[in-house]
Amino acid sequence: MKKLFRGLAILLFTLLLWQIMANIVHSPVLPYPLQILQNFILTIGQKLPIHTFYSFMRVAISMLAALLIGIPLGIAIGYNNKCHKVFSPFLYLSYPVPKLALLPIIMLLFGLGETSKIIMIFLILFFPVTMDIAANVRQMNKEIFQTMHAFGAKDSAIAKKIILPGVLPAVLTSLKVSVGIALSILFFAENYGTKFGLGYLIMTSWQKMDYINLYTGIFTLAILGFCLFLLLDWLEDKVTRWR
Amino acid sequence: MLALQNVCVSYGTKQILTNINLQLQNHKIYAILGKSGCGKSTLLQTLAGIQPYTGSITLQNKKLDSRRHRIAFIPQKNSLIPWQTVEQNIRMPFSLRQLPQPQHLENLCQELGIHTLLLKYPNHISGGEQQRVAIARAFLFTPDLLLMDEAFSALDAITKEEVHHIFAATIAKHKVSTLFVTHDISEALYLAEEIYVLRDGKLQKPFDKNELFGQDKEDFPIEYQAMIRFYKEQI
Question: Do B204 and B224 touch, CB atoms closer than 8 A?
Answer without folding.
Answer: no
